[in-house]
User: Fold these one by one.
Assistant:
Number 1:
Amino acid sequence: MSCTCVVGLQWGDEAKGKIVDLLGNEHDFVVRYNGGANAGHTIVWGDRTFKLSLLPTGILKPHLRSVIGNGLVVYPPRLLEEIGQLRSGGINVGANLAVSDHCHVIFPYHMEEERAVEQGGGAVIGTTGRGIGPCYQDKVGRTGGIRMGELLYPEHLRERLKSIVPRKNRIIAALATGPEKPRQFDANEIGDEYLKHADALKPYITDTAKLLQDGLKAGKKIIFEGAQGSLLDIDHGTYPYVTSSNSLPGGIANGCGIPARNVTRIVGVVKAYTTRVGKGPFPTELDDGPNGIGERIRKIGREYGTVTGRPRRVGWFDVVAVRYTAALAGADEVTVMLLDVLSGLKELAICTGYQIDGRRIDSFPSDAFLLQRCKPLYETLPGWEMDLTSARKKSDLPIEALKYVDRLSELLGLRVSLVSVGPDREQSISI
Ligand code: IMP
């Protein structure tokens, strides 16, 4: 039995897709267990570019069966758009895709509800606006949630919408602030639209827990693709500035119906620095203006959100945070991505502790209100000038880059198994 989980150990966008791609050939299934179309991967294949946010990145490998586990929230128009985009790019999507009948469905009223909350002032999260939070709220609230399997029963679906939509309209109207009239929805129109989507998605909707359990019994190998980073995990992340699902590997068992003990290898993915999109505390943030190091890293690393296009916030590597998430994830190893982006900096800083209320702490206070008060304590290392993008083996790296990676490994207490110096497969160095 061999299952691998690839999980980001920061605030997301760690380039997990590349690691899934590198490990894909050793596996039979690639499975997402959390989130929805809030994740974003840009995949460049020769002259073709695919932007995926809901489908697992493994969909590009024809031998892999791609699975959207029950822990996801699915917006059918987006799923169909991604399938269409791949097909028109010559990628086969058919029996190689399975979508859990237990995924919760995102409706347009979820996005409207989120818009009303996020624009309502007060404590906003800075979400991706994809309806993720409101859909998960309906899931745990039970009375308003609709699952993918229900889309296949027209009369039942219409009945459910008839009772849910008027209530949603009242909620949205109550939440709305400002001069703009809140959008209101019609149960029949939504029913008509979603029944069309259901027809198109029917071939993929199935009991994916059973599919994966049968696969394991037959000796198949699974790779789990964590979406969002561990610091965005609903339970262990920087609450409330988190996403609404369990992005840590703890989400696998519930998010796809495979017992936790089957996961035998956990690969933690980190950037050589840190980024974050949306609001929330970020102790090592480099908020140093248009000519500062933060902006330089943002430009060179193309640090703009794939889903929303927002500029990502950029900062130094935070060992305190990653030690915390690596322990929660049970990471066996880490891969350090985007090391090439740091070339040309005279000095690099690594955060090794925090100061809070005049005391030094080495543990991570994940509650946002406490983390907000933490000041980073740094150690510095010399940088390097050399462009790393054509390095292919360890001995091609300058000594300063190797020392930087070694120091991260030492401080994290984890083996660095791979360093990435560019988006291509070849730009990967085994360490
Ligand atoms: P939501 O997941 O859209 O509800 O957004 C909640 C928070 O998670 C916001 O700060 C988002 O910017 C962030 N977030 C959600 N998905 C991702 C991702 O894939 N990468 C990075 N940040 C994300």
Number 2:
Amino acid sequence: MTTLNSLNQQFGIAGHLQFIEVDGGLTFAEINNAHATASIAIQGAHIATFQPKGEEPIIWLSKLAKFVPGKSIRGGVPVCWPWFGPHATDSKLPGHGYARTVMWEVQETKALADGSTFIRFGLIENETTKAQWPHASTVQLEATVGKALKVELITKNTGNTAFQLGEALHTYFHISDVGNMTIRGLEGCEYIDKVGETTRRTQQGGIVIESEVDRVYVNTTADCVIEDKGLKRAIRIAKTGSKSAVVWNPWTEKADKMGDFGPQGHRGMVCVESGNAFDNVVTVQAGETHRLVAVYSSEKL
Ligand code: TA6
């Protein structure tokens, strides 16, 4: 187990990055540079916060989020890997894979010439993870914290046979109120509507949320833009290596049942996830590296 002191000695960067331990027992990289602040739990390589200097947060984090070993954090950028949603054959395995609730390790940190901060994590495989995922592979997450936040999920097939990968950066975005928001970029896209009986539909116009929404848009590489009239800003979600976009808001009843959104917490967030799921599950050939990249930035409306 790496101690806080050894982490800060090896990877801390004055004026950029330090490691702290929070109540509950998780260790976070706290980033504070000229452009932005961010905090990233080493467990799950889970980006919990991101806020450009002088702006509202881009990323939403529940006020009731728990920071305890083995539990996913409600909000931020949960890493769904190596499958998205329920496991294909074993319902006892964790939804969205195990990556977000197991320990990763810090592999590198850098202060970049433009004042941004770079950090890379690698997932630590163990008998439990190998029992769930019997493929020789590595997965790393790179975050570059600047005026924008760039997140790269890198999967390497280190074995001799191809495997099928489902994945997503399950990102929760901070909005003024779900009633003030429209999501652009998915017009005309086919999506799997998971609310009620699973149905395939086609998106007509921008996405306005007035009840539970749980949709997997397939075969789309487009940027998504969250237009927030309340904050007079837009959040742009640009991506490469991803053909699925997931839009989710649990609405009142589901959020209350989940218990860690807080009262009306769902009104201040929307998930727009960049991934590869359903029709877009990725075949990673032996020896191949697959990169899923998302860049989050804000623009004036
Ligand atoms: O991405 C949307 C979704 O698949 C929803 O169906 C809901 O399960 C959500 O993820 C949150 O899942 P979690 O396991 O983080 O509570």
